[in-house]
Structures are given as structure tokens and as C-alpha cells.
Amino acid sequence: MAVDRLLPTDEARDLIQLTRDIADKVLAPIVDEHEKAETYPEGVFATLGEAGLLSLPYPQEWGGGGQPYEVYLQVLEEIAACWAAVAVAVSVHSLACHPLMAFGTEEQKQQWLPEMLSGTTIGAYSLSEPQAGSDAAALACKATAVDGGYRVDGAKAWITHGGIADFYNLFARTGEGSKGISCFLVPKATEGLSFGRPEQKMGLHAVPTTSAHYDDAFVPTERRIGVEGQGLQIAFSALDSGRLGIAAVAVGLAQAALDEAVAYARERTAFGRRIIDHQGLGFLLADMAAAVDSARATYLDAARRRDAGLPYSRNASVAKLVATDAAMKVTTDAVQVLGGYGYTRDFRVERYMREAKITQIFEGTNQIQRLVIGRHLAG
Ligand SMILES: Cc1cc2nc3c(=O)[nH]c(=O)nc-3n(C[C@H](O)[C@H](O)[C@H](O)COP(=O)(O)OP(=O)(O)OC[C@H]3O[C@@H](n4cnc5c(N)ncnc54)[C@H](O)[C@@H]3O)c2cc1C
């Protein structure tokens, strides 16, 4: 059932309709096949790029869609309701464009931003390492200054779109401590850069997650974004926006699970009546609907603060925490509504439940979101 959205403009309404059309005609017919076979959907990102859906929140002067964040997030939610792996990759691409947009020089933007925002080149974000996930400041991958640039050595982990994306936000150590990290924009074809084989994941099977290995890879100085030592500030600034993307993906998943559960509960009968008419199950569905609506309201509130130029870091962490916990609960309850059938791969709720789990983990686990919120409260 299509969500009845309150959108700010006619243009936003058209964008939602366009997204629904693409989801119905391009994504829905192939999602099950790719998720089961764990194959990458070639061509899907070109379609999304041509439709202008890969750069919605970025300024039009650089080739972006010039849309408020609240609109971009609702588009993302619509994609996620159909195919979470694709929505996550779209969100990560947007995340990967942020450092250049917010911290790049005019020259750097002119050189790379238009092709990134048009979707001609797809981006990935590589902050995590095998030994440093939540504690990003402990990262060890090293960028040693040499004539004309840096020599990079070390390993990065868990890169969404790894090995497929055309450019990589690399966060590497150029000095000591948390102020000794710098940000680079590294093209895939860099000599000395290689990728591990895709991780065997619980969900999001159609988009690979890989490690990356830098072996004496040369990155020229003009590919450093911001000043030396500014890397962690850039990484966290991008994550504030990215977390809202993950919150929207989580709501899309939860909405899809709710819709499937309601449709099933209206059809299935037990003890002589539709299972939705048993109050015990009707209340479960009502709680699921309340969780979805409130999670959406929470991310929209954070997005509107961002659109208004207000501080929104705490609100982004609240949105990520609330929306992803809601998605985990709602998708699990959807499996319950379908009974034994919910536990099989014949129904999509099984996939939604597996996919919801990762939203509580990446772009800062929900323990880390609590840490961020707690620090704001502590002043
Ligand atoms: C499918 C997938 C895609 C990903 N995509 C990307 C990507 O594109 N780019 C990228 O850079 N990374 C990516 N990640 C990495 C992801 O962001 C990390 O896995 C996540 O940040 C957690 O880090 P970790 O796995 O090292 O866990 P750890 O940091 O080792 O944490 C383990 C547990 O300890 C808890 N914990 C840690 N510190 C604290 C604390 N201070 N207080 C309370 N609890 C704490 C955590 O919440 C967690 O429950 C991805 C991961 C996955 C699985």
C-alpha cells in the first residue's frame, strides 16, 4: 500500500511517483532473483542516475537535484521498501559525495563532483578497518607523505559497493592520534589498490561488501580532501547525513514488512475468522503501524532541522536509533504474523528481518548512537 506522504512541493510529489514507477518496473521484477543468487544488478545504478535519483540533496549548480533532505530521504525510503541493498548503496554513494561537496576546493569540485552527482561514477566510503570499527580514531591504514602526494599502506574493511564503486573516500593516518587522520578521494584504478572477495553476509546479498588493501599505493596531493589531520571531522560530518539515510532505509523496510503482514492477516483465517480480527493479532499490527509512523516522523524532524540549517547531529543519532530498532522489531513481528510461512523464503518478510539487522550495526552501531546522544545531553 503506497504511503500517503505529506510532501512540500509538486516537484517532490513527482519525484516520489517517479521512484515508485522505477521500483515497480525496474527493481521489483529482479530483486528476488539477485538477492537469492547474490549477484550484482548491473544497470540499476545507471537507471537511477539517469532518473536523477543519485544526487537529490546536492546543489543543482554541481549537477545535483537541489532537493531538501526530507524529500531525498523519502525517495530513499521508497527504494528501500522494494530493495534495501540498492537503497543502502544509494545512501552510501550520497555519503561518499559529502566530503568533496563540503570540504573540497573549488578546483576539486569542478574536476570530480559533476560526474559523481550524475552517477557516471559511483562512490564508496571506507572508514572502517578490521581492528577499528566503532573506535574509528584507532584506524591504522597509513598515508606517508612523499614527493607530490602520499604512499598508502594498510587494510580497510566492510566497504559497501567495494570493488564495484569507481571512487573511494579513504580515511588514513598521516599523523598521531585523532587529529592525525586525513581524507582522500581514491579512484578504483589506483595501482596498489586491490579488493578482497565479497563477505558472506546475512542480507543485502545483491551489493557486495569487501575489504580493500593498499600496498604502496600512490595518491597525489590534489586528491586529499580538506587539510591534513581533518579526516575524522570530515568522516563524522558525512556520517551525520548518512545516518539519516540509514534511518530512512530502515523505515522503508519496516513499512514493506507491515504492508505484507497486513495483507496476509486480512486473508488468512483461523478459528473461523480472519486473523486480523483476533484482537491479539490486531494489536500487534497496530503497534507495528505506530512504530513505523513514529520512526518516519523522527527522521523527518531531523531532516527538516538539517534543511533549515540548524544543528541536527543529536537528532540524526536519535533517528537512526529509533528507526533501526523499530525496523528490527516490526520485521520480526511481521514474520510472527505470517506464522510458519513467515519463516520461509517464499515470503519477503524473512528477507526484511535479515536486512533490518544490519541497520542497527553500520554507520555507527546503536550503542554508538546512544553514546553520541548521551554526549550531547552531557554538554
Ligand atoms: C554489511 C556491512 C556494510 C558496511 N559498510 C561500511 C561502509 O561502507 N564503510 C565503512 O567504513 N564501514 C562499513 N561497515 C562497517 C560498520 O560501520 C562497522 O561494522 C560498525 O561501525 C561496527 O564496527 P565493528 O564491526 O568493528 O564492531 P566493534 O566496534 O568491534 O563493536 C562490537 C560491539 O561492541 C559495541 N561497542 C563498541 N564500542 C562501544 C562503546 N564505547 N560502548 C558500548 N558499546 C560499544 C558495539 O556497539 C558492538 O555491539 C559495514 C558493515 C557491514 C556489516
Which segments are poorly predicted (pLDDT under 50) over 5 or more consecutive residues?
Answer: none
| Backbone shape | globular
Q: Return the structural class.
A: alpha+beta
**Strand sequence of the main sheet, in spatial order?**
1-4-5-8
- In total, how many beta strands? 10
Q: State the order of secondary-structure elements, H for helix, E for strand.
A: HHHHHEEEEEEEEHEEHHHH
Query: How far apart are the termini?
Result: 43 Å
By DSSP (H or I, 4+ residues per run), the number of helices equals 10
**What is the helical fraction, as a range of percent?**
40-55%
The small molecules bound here are: flavin-adenine dinucleotide
Mean pLDDT: 97
Query: What does the largest sheet look like?
Result: 4 strands, mixed
For the CA atoms, what is the radius of gyration?
21 Å
Q: Which percent range describes the beta-strand content?
A: 5-15%
Q: Assembly type of the shown chains?
A: single chain
Would you give an account of this structure?
With 379 residues, the protein is an alpha+beta fold. It has a four-stranded mixed sheet. A four-stranded antiparallel sheet has the order 2-3-7-6, covered by helices on one side. A hairpin with a 7-residue loop joins strand 4 and strand 5 (181-187). The radius of gyration is 21 Å and the shape is globular. Helix content is 52%, strand content 15%. The mean pLDDT is 97. The protein starts with 9 loop residues before the first helix and ends with a helix. Residues 92, 125-128, 133-134, 158-160, 201, 204, 209, 358, 361-365, 367-368, 371 line the site of flavin-adenine dinucleotide. The site of flavin-adenine dinucleotide (FAD) has 22 residues, from strand 1, strand 3 and helix 10.
